[in-house]
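The instructor's notes for this session suggest beginning with a concrete chain rather than abstract definitions. Hand out the sequence below and ask the class to guess, before any prediction is shown, which regions might be ordered.
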Amino acid sequence: MNINRLFLSSVVSSMYLYSEGLQSFNDVVITATKTENSAKELTTAVQIISVEQIENSGASNLSEILSSVAGVYINPSGSTYRIRGMEHADTLILIDGRRVNGEFSKIFELERIAADMIERVEILKGTSSLLYGSDAMGGVINIITKKATKDKLRGSIQVIGGEYKRSADFIVSKKFKDTSFTLFTNYINRDSYSKDKVANIKIMHSGVEKSPSNSTLPATGNYGTLASALSDSYSVNNDYLYNLEVKNIGTKISHNLNDAISLYFDFSYLEEEKDGEYISDSYATAYAGGSGNIMTKYVPAHQYNKNKRLDIASGLDYFINDNMHLNYNIAYSRYKKDRKSYTPLYSQLGYSSYEASAFSVNESVIKYLNNNLQFTHTISENNRYILGAEHRINDTTSTAFNVNNRTYTSFFAQHEYDILKNLKLIYGARYDKTSIDEDEVSFSFGGVYRLTNNLFLKANYSEGFRSPDDRELYVDQTTPTGKKKLGAEVIDSSHGKTSQYKLKSEKSKSFEVGLLADFDIADFEINAYQTDVDDRISEVTYSNYTSFENISDTKIRGVESALSFSPLEDFYIDMSFAYVDAKNEIENKELVEIPKSIAGLTLKYKLTKSVELKTITKYVGEQYSSDEVKLGGYTITNLKLNVTNIMKDTDFFVGVDNIFDKQMDDYLGLIPQSNFYAGIKYKF
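After discussion, reveal the predicted structure:
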């Protein structure tokens, strides 16, 4: 399907398909340019999720918020997310404009951020390396948290309970003459969601998988002891969503020294526990055999995660005069990960205790120190530029790999200029240098043309890159599923990896065009884009291990459209549709785990001034598994009833997620069956 046909079909599709989240185009956006612009003044596509949408969603965390947004794909287990078909590692997660420290695989656990602490979410779609450097080829998700805005002590207490989840949130804030503070804390608890599976045990013998009852296994010695202790199969309560418990606490303090200078300090601390049962691909026994311990396959296992994160940030805003602004911030983040897997068959595998069967141990500490400096000069209302610099230090200590500190240094410049009365240009350049001898230069150029007071035409070209991360370069560990994973620069002759591989940065070139219509009765937007990625880093499987190599060039093309209107005074409809065509250009194959289309429909009806009924439907289209098997699409519908001021300053809401009890292919995971929740929020 060519891009012109996609563009036209998307216009038609947007008349009946939706995603919640089309903002007012007059909303001010910070993420796209690091300056204040309305959405219709931007050359790239931005999606805003407002505090009203968040509060009306019934979500307890960020993952649940984004799951109902068609502009972002989150797989059912919440383990990965994509924007415009790009990998999760290509999407940069920010909290209040600052990078977030997360997992080695660059997956940030979206469940860790409580919904009630979020003021709004800005989703910047497309390559954004000009302002944000590495890791932003696919886009940026900026979570903007709540801040004090009132002189009086203000706050809220919210409690949500349901069949699978429970949460409690408390937030309080106050603004004094020159000082303001916000304090928040929250608790999230979610039960696992499981499906019975059968683990068909295999014992590795002479490179061949054999059932314990197989007569060709040695009847004596360690093999005989192991085979006699094991059954051929076991029933397993396989968890697709793990048990989860999250605790958060944090504070924000700001102080105006005078009319020109203000200081701020942020602190947050998180504790997370997560556990679940699964079937491992490989599990070592305590019995010796040949050159090492005898290996088994498809053994029931239980993974435990205990993670902690500390974030501290401080900064200064200096308004030199009415036209010049200087901002500096420094942020420190420390993430401690403790992951272990055990097997309930420890005795059968020859271990003396459950604890002795510990497998795939990962005890790690990741520390970030970020320094950011930005100077903004507004020459006139129609002419503004920014200059910026960033220096980042990553320090990792881990049982999974050993690596020295990595540093990232960058400089960027961006100019916004209304070259004509109806034409605004935004362009710039960035230089990045890393401690592994990488030098990258990125350019971006775009314009938005006002056709009429209500119609805006936009176009943008941008370049991006993603530097190989520590895991891709240096990892040396056994994963929870039992697979050996080796970084590109790791040599492990015992598993067959005898040489290093020189991993290069991924590089992208992206072009998009769009049309935006802003009317009193409706808002409409459509964007078409193409992104070419060279030297795509992929995980490659060999007989005894997996590693990382630059193996492909990819081309991703797509169209997104959104429509929001109100046909009746108290009835609101929001719709959107997104189509993605993503291919490996070298092998001419579809990229895996990327839905061809995503769409949805939200209907909102105000029964009375204080009672609102809302449905959110999201459709996820066909996609291919890693084994190149085509997986069917699925549709999920959620229903919510919200009652404001049911008592003084008290809101009440009830909802049903997955009301039609839909499911999808087991490969994608499971989502809970139709499940009920209720919540109450008291504001003071």
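Then share the key points. The longest strand covers residues 546-568. The radius of gyration is 26 Å.
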